[in-house]
Amino acid sequence: MNEYLFPIKIALFTFPIAAFFLTLPFLIIQYRKYGYVNKYRAFILYSLLLYAMSAYYLVILPLPANVNNCTTREALTHYMQLRPFTFISDTLKETRVVWSEPASFMHLFKERAFLQALFNIFLTIPAGVYLRYYFRKGLGATLLFSLGLSLFFELTQLTGLYGIYQCPYRLFDVDDLMLNTLGGIIGYWITPILAAFLPKTENLDKDVELDKMTVGFIRRGIAYIFDNIIIGIATSILSMIVSASSAVVLQTTDIGSLEKSFINAFSFVIVIMIYFMVIPTVTGGRTLGKWITRIHVIADRREGELQEITFMDLVKRYALLYYGVYGLFSLMAWVANYGELPAYADVALLLVRAVFVFVLGAYFVIQLFRGNKILFYERVSGTRNVITLREEMEDHQGTSS
C-alpha cells in the first residue's frame, strides 16, 4: 500500500506549488470566458489538477536511482506485455482463494496481481467522473479519452520518462490500457449518483449578473501588472530615444545622472498620458491589462448614471494617481538622491516617505474589506471599473474591425 501512498503524498506536497504558478493563467481564462470567477468552478478545476498530479505521480514514481538504468540491452518489445487478460491468469496463479469458500475471497485484497488490476481501474475512475460531470462528455468521448490517457501513461513508462532514462523502468501493458479504459467508463456510469449531491454545472452561471458585480482588487491587480510591464518597456524605449537625441543635439556622449533622471521622468509622463489617457479614450476605457481581465473604465456620474469615458475623465483619474500620488513619492525620492540635504533633513524626508507609504498601505487595506472597492482617485474623478459584458466585447471588436 505504501507504493501507492507515496506518490499521493508527493502530489499533495507539490500541488500548492503547481497551483500557485497556474493561478494567474487560470484567473485570466475565467475572466475572459465567464466574466468572473465562480468559486465552485475553481474548486472543481483545482481538484482536477490535484487528481491529474496524483495520477501522474502514481504512474512514474518511484523513479530509478540512475538515468543509466539498463542492465542489459534488450529490444523494446522486451518491455511490452501485449497479451490481453494476462492479469486474470496472474491472479489465478498467485491467489490463495478457495472459490467454494466465499470467506476466502478477502485474500484477494492482499495479493499483488489483483491489487494492481484494481488500482488500474481506480486510477481513471475520477477522469470519467470529471468528463461527464464538468465537461459534459458522452460515453464515446469518455471511452476515447480514457484510452488516450492510459496510452499516455503507458508511453511515458515505455519511453523511460520521455528519454530521461536510457531504458523503460516499467512494462507497457495492454491489460493496463483495458483496465484504465474500464475505469473511465465506470466513472462515467457512477457520475449520475454523485451528481445528485452536487450542483448542476450548467446552472453555475445562471443567476449571475455581471453588470452588478464589483470589480475586485485581485482582478485589478492583474490588469495593473500587465499595464505596468508595458509602461516600463515603453518608458525605457522612449528614454533611450530621447537620450540619444539629446546626445546628438548637445554633441556629447556623456549625459549626467541628473539629466538622465529628468529624461526618465519626462518619458514616464508622456507614456502615462498616451497609454492611460489617449488610448483608452479610443478603446472605450480599455488598456491591454483591462482587456485581458475583461474590464473597462466608465464615468460614474453623481446621478448614478453610467456613461462612456471621456479624455478629461481619464486625465482626472490617472493624473491624480500617477502624476499626483506616484509623482509626489518619486519627487521625494529624487530630492533624497540629488538634493544634497543636511542630515536632519534627510531623516525628516525619510520619515515623511515612511508615513506616506504607511498611510497609503493602511488605506488600501481598509478598502480591501469594503464592499464598493472604490479608491480615492476614482471618487475624485467620478470613474470606476466595470466588467465588460459579452455584447460590449462583440460591439467593440466589430467597431475595431
From TrEMBL:
- Keywords noted in UniProt: Membrane, Transmembrane, Transmembrane helix
VanZ-like domain location is 49-194
Cellular component terms (Gene Ontology): membrane
What is the annotated localization of this protein? Membrane
Q: Does the keyword Membrane apply?
A: yes
List, for all copies, the residue spans of the domain called RDD: 215-352
Keyword Transmembrane helix: yes or no? yes
The protein's superkingdom reads: Bacteria
Look up and give the membrane topology term: Multi-pass membrane protein
Q: What is its main location?
A: membrane
Instruction: Give the residue spans that cross the bilayer.
Output: 6-28, 40-59, 113-131, 143-165, 177-198, 222-242, 262-282, 318-336, 348-369
Q: Which InterPro entries match?
A: RDD, Teicoplanin_resist-assoc, UCP031578_Vanz/RDD, VanZ-like
The name this protein carries in UniProt is Glycopeptide antibiotics resistance protein
Q: From which source organism is this entry?
A: Paenibacillus aquistagni
High-level lineage: Bacteria, Bacillati, Bacillota, Bacilli, Bacillales
